[in-house]
Amino acid sequence: MTDDIKTQALACRDAAQVLAQLSSADKAALLEAMAQGLLDHAPEILEANAKDLDAARAKGVGSAMLDRLTLNSERIAGIAAAVREVAALPDPVGQVTRTDTRPNGIRVSKVRVPLGVIAMIYEARPNVTADAAALCIKAGNGVILRGGSEAIHSNTAIATVLQAALEAANVPAAALTLVTDLRRETMLALLQLSDIVDLAIPRGGEGLIRFVAEHARVPVIKHYKGVCHLFVDDSADLDLALKLLVDGKVSRPSACNALETLLVHRDIADAFLPAAAKALLARGVELRGDEATRILVAEAKPASDEDYAAEFLDLVLAVRVVDGLEPAIAHIRHYGSDHTEVIATGDEAHATAFVAALRAAVVMVNASSRFSDGGELGLGAEIGISTTRLHSYGPMGLEALTVERFVVQGEGQTRVPIAID
């Protein structure tokens, strides 16, 4: 088993070297062909997806998981459109990010090149198979995809279509390798291949990400959870703050960029919290607050220490009244997850201090936490979010799937004089 996954990884590495030599135009054409292939083979993909859904229902899987698993013609069209969007993005490979001529005349450049082989380990969503493949291929990388057992038929059908497009472009299909042996031992073996795999990106629940991070010998992009805060300062426009709160909590509560905790300056709590509670309760949000919150909002339940550390991913919000900017920052430092933090304020000095004091991957001033997304931040698409400081921090787009290397051009310069007889 270990030898088999290593053989697959080696084949992916060899194929990645072919992929890395494609021009930007060739890669764009390849991705266009992949998108069209998904549309052309939609019936086969839907047939495969039906098998996954039948198996999930037989296991009693909940409605949220079923929704993530479900494909239909509209969703397949959306997946194909996402691949086409990646095809249209600027190619980071070959970008020169720095040039300098040294006193001795050598010309030094830093140039973006592909990372190499990326292992993508994910759960549930079949669309990740196409999204991750498109992003990795656009950046010239080979990709090893290890999805969850609940989507194995859907993932296999999608990967087969994408591999056919690779072969039609004279790129070995192994450039996109789908691991179909889903035993944990096989995943563990993959994560030990530090001489072949250049980066692992786990995408799913906190349990999966911690498992990968704890067992890998390859670098891992980690994003355990999103405990995102909104602090409403005493100088904030309260109508603006209310819009940020409702959008951040309600628009998609299951997303990692959804708000989980509201911090309110004590001086405006009387004016803000009753209106905020009314808006949230009307939208089905359960509130859990400290004593000061519960005095102002009778419907709020007592909040525990665990609530302030929780990523609810649901219509539940923890609330705390704080004495000012510094206590808000202290709370976030203690309970935050380095994902996304938001301040609503009319005080520029407070905004500057908030941004400087927190080390979160994304810090927002008077903007919704829901903008913490690669597409919304101008990356075009994202392969994941990093809350570690490896080589990328925050939402990861195409540039994060490359590294910068030095290219040096000279005319025979040497460090010490060399006499040639």
Automatic annotation (TrEMBL):
PROSITE patterns: PROA. Residues 4-292 form the Aldehyde dehydrogenase domain. Its EC number is 1.2.1.41. It catalyses: L-glutamate 5-semialdehyde + phosphate + NADP(+) = L-glutamyl 5-phosphate + NADPH + H(+). NCBIfam families: PRK00197.1, proA. This is Gamma-glutamyl phosphate reductase. It comes from Pseudoxanthomonas winnipegensis. CDD domains: ALDH_F18-19_ProA-GPR. GO terms for molecular function: glutamate-5-semialdehyde dehydrogenase activity. Keywords: Amino-acid biosynthesis, Cytoplasm, NADP, Oxidoreductase, Proline biosynthesis. The lineage of its organism: Bacteria, Pseudomonadati, Pseudomonadota, Gammaproteobacteria, Lysobacterales. Belongs to the gamma-glutamyl phosphate reductase family. PANTHER family: DELTA-1-PYRROLINE-5-CARBOXYLATE SYNTHASE, GLUTAMATE SEMIALDEHYDE DEHYDROGENASE. It comes from the Bacteria.
